[in-house]
Specification:
The chain is an alpha+beta fold. Helix content is 19%, strand content 39%.
Length: 236
Amino acid sequence: MDKVFGYIPVILLTILGFFSSGGSGIAATGYPEDDSIEVQILYNGRAWRNLYTSIRGDQFLFSDNFLKGIVRAGGLLFGNQMLKYDIFNDEILLVTRKKIVLQLNKENIDSFNLEYGGKTYSFKRLDADSLNSLSGYVRVLYEGNTSLFVKYSKEILSLAVENKYDLFSQIERIYMVREGKLYRLKGRGDLLNLLNDKKQQVHSFIRSNNIRINRKDPESFIPVLEYYDGLNKNYR
């Protein structure tokens, strides 16, 4: 209960005359009714303000404009949301119908999608455990017996513009999960080392299909993982 209602003052300010799907768990318009449990789940967050206006660039993924997306929070799916993903702080921003910008409570978010450049990008929240230190939002590229994620972040480069202004710089890291363990992939070599138990088949597949694996194109790893998982008799 504390997670859902921990930001009640902000929620009360942002309760709107919205429409829900009648308890189906999917808000077709994206806006639950103002007296519903759903609005308390979706708008569990706090008012946001930009602390980085003096830094060149921005802290967001893809664009500093709000992008159309979907949020799954508390097991409910909310469509037609306008979102920004702040990858410097690893937080999701949502603009309400009354143009109030909220930073959503990360503990309540299961996953979200963003639409950009005619493509849909899917993300989910990971929690660190005793084996894996990666936590927060990751882009999901593939999930089978193995999984492939991208973690986006930004750092601030001091005085990087004309030796006068700080600059946001984006970082992308690729991760693979195999047998419950997380591994960072810096390139083709790391991937092939992790798939060494099927080395001959994997190399043959890459050659025969002329697959070029490039860390600058994380999606290029996907066909190899799909093939590798297909070699496993337990693959479902």
